[in-house]
């Protein structure tokens, strides 16, 4: 009896606060899609790519100018990313979806490539840690992402790589010879 009363009180409180408790709530769907995106990136397992993305995925990494169209290009990019940033993880922030589009915020916590590889992958291969927040603007088909445009601030990352990566950072921003 106490358990039933507690559940009833919780449901009424959620309704009064405006929180939806339905399983088909669009926000829940968007959060699931965002969580799948985060899990894919954190797993570094390319074999699960089509659990999260459609095979005709269009992916754009806005700060770097990378635009990839289709499964083969995206898989190669993702594998290169996983190789370049082996010490990397993502955390999910806020998300919202309406219909077949939405967004979610993410935080990327990583180290700048591995300094023991040649050529050194990552941005400058300094091995220094960095953190940057970003947002993925997505198109959704079913429960998978068919378009993903990632926006984040490259300058925020590059500032964290200084002073060790000074020459590399200058080259990345186009101010070195």
Characterise this structure.
With 177 residues, the chain is α+β, with helices and mostly antiparallel strands. The protein has a single domain, classed as Nuclear Transport Factor 2, Chain: A (Roll), CATH 3.10.450.50. Helices cover 38% and strands 32% of the residues. The protein is built from six helices and six strands. The protein has a six-stranded mixed β-sheet with strand order 2-1-6-5-4-3. The longest helix is centred in the N-terminal third of the chain and has 18 residues. The radius of gyration is 20 Å and the shape is globular. The termini are far apart. About 8% of the residues have low confidence.
Reconstruct the topology from this structure.
Blueprint: H1 2-17, H2 26-43, H3 49-52, E1 53-61, E2 66-69, H4 71-84, E3 88-98, E4 101-111, E5 129-141, E6 144-152, H5 154-161, H6 166-172
Parallel strand pairs: 1-6
Antiparallel strand pairs: 1-2, 3-4, 4-5, 5-6
Search tags:
single chain, Nuclear Transport Factor 2, Chain: A, 6 helices, 177 residues, alpha+beta, 6-stranded mixed sheet
């Amino acid at each position: 009896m106490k358990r039933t009363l507690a559940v009833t009180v919780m449901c009424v409180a959620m309704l009064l606060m405006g929180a939806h408790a339905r399983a088909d709530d669009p926000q829940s769907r968007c959060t699931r899609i965002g969580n799948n995106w985060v899990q894919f990136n954190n797993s570094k397992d390319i074999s699960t790519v089509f659990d999260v993305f459609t095979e005709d995925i269009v992916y754009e990494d806005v700060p770097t100018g990378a635009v990839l169209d289709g499964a083969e290009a995206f898989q190669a990019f993702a594998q290169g990313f996983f190789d370049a940033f082996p010490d990397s993880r993502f955390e999910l922030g806020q998300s919202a979806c309406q219909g077949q589009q939405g967004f979610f915020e993410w935080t990327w916590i990583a180290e700048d490539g591995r300094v023991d590889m040649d050529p050194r992958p990552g941005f400058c291969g300094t091995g220094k840690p960095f953190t940057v927040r970003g947002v993925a603007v997505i198109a959704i088909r079913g429960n998978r992402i068919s378009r993903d445009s990632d926006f984040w601030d490259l300058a925020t990352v590059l500032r964290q790589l200084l002073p060790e990566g000074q020459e590399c950072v200058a080259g990345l921003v186009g101010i070195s010879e």
